[in-house]
Specification:
DHBP synthase; 15 strands; about 325 residues; tRNA binding; ATP-binding; 11 helices
Length: about 325
């Protein structure tokens, strides 16, 4: 199969493929998604096959406007209107109870709920509109590997397996959306992202807890990205606390291990390595934007025995960064023990 790269003037062509049941990857402000018509169960099944993803994982349904959700949702949380007004389109996925039979179990993972998002990307909103149906859109990569933040990343993983990729350059945020569960009484964050816990609580005026439960391989998650290990390159990853950098570098030298560094410019100036991915600047925004690209670049270079990754405080956007990094590192920090 030839995988075609679509530009802005070819969105109708890409939409026609989706209407016909084929797979087309699309850009969002977070990461690239692997698109299939959410109303065509056989197409959605292809998504799992192409990604090598367990079919019990629920998928996020991408819509072009809020009214597209009404065909499927049984009931809305009282705070839904406020949330939509402030955060859609944007990097926030909402989980609702749905009408029985309104979506295939292939989409929902057999659950009575489904996840919906309106991405903040004009090309993709146009693509959904021209398709005339919502699109499922898990990250457009091989399952378990770092998510794609450019069309080239998608092409690397899925070339010859999907019909096309709608190109819109590099994504702005770099990690997947926040997932907010609205199927119960209390809004609960199941996956942190760029819409932070603090921002939600400020807008809603209520406590919005973070569910830190990590799902085992045998469990069905309520939202994507809740597995213990995820986003992982082939090369092992260790998280390095600020006070441990010198000891970690000395340990690697003593063990004759080639180290790849995933770091800020400040840390890169202190420690050297033949294989190094440096974030654009020292901010958490730059680190989040570069996390998956950096993991991919270091892994594909195949120069390192281990990747040392810089950590950030677990608050605000740092919560999303550390959530992904911990899973990429299988929860492992450097330790001399």
């Amino acid at each position: 199969m030839e995988t075609k790269i679509f530009q802005s003037d070819q969105i109708e062509e890409a939409a026609a493929l989706l209407r016909n049941g084929e797979l087309v990857a699309f850009p969002t402000e977070t990461v690239y998604g692997l698109g299939a018509n959410a109303l065509l169960a056989e197409s959605v099944k292809q998504v799992f096959a192409v990604k090598g993803r367990p079919s019990d994982n629920p998928l996020i349904v991408h819509v072009a406007n809020f009214s597209m959700t009404e065909e499927f949702v049984e009931s809305y949380h009282p705070l839904t209107e406020t949330i939509i007004k402030h955060f859609w389109p944007g990097p926030l996925t909402l989980i609702f109870k749905i009408k029985t039979g309104s979506l295939s179990p292939v989409v929902t993972g057999g659950l009575s709920t489904a996840a919906f998002r309106m991405p903040d990307n004009k090309k993709t909103l146009s693509l959904i509109g021209k398709t005339g149906a919502p699109l499922v859109g898990p990250s457009a990569n091989t399952s378990g590997k770092p998510s794609p933040t450019t069309a080239l990343h998608v092409y690397h993983d899925l070339s010859g397996k999907i019909s096309g990729i709608l190109d819109d350059g590099a994504t702005e945020i770099g990690v997947e959306s926040t997932v907010l569960d609205l199927s119960g009484d209390q809004p609960t964050i199941l996956r942190p992202g760029a819409v932070t816990q603090e921002a939600l609580q400020e807008v809603l005026g209520v406590e919005v807890p973070l569910d830190k439960h990590l799902v085992k391989e045998s469990e069905t998650p309520k939202a994507p990205g809740m597995k213990y290990k995820h986003y992982s390159p082939e090369t092992s990853v260790l998280m390095i606390k600020p006070e441990d950098w010198q000891k970690a570098m000395e340990w690697a030298k003593a063990k004759d291990k080639k180290v790849g560094l995933l770091v800020t410019p400040t840390t890169a100036n202190k420690y050297t390595s033949a294989d190094c991915f440096v974030f654009e600047d020292d901010t958490i925004e730059a680190a989040t934007r570069g996390l998956f690209s950096g993991l991919r670049a270091l892994d594909e270079a195949k120069k390192s025995d281990v990747i040392f990754a810089e950590v950030f405080p677990e608050d605000h956007l740092g919560l999303a960064y550390m959530n992904r990094l911990k899973k990429a590192a299988a929860q492992n920090y450097f330790s001399e023990k």
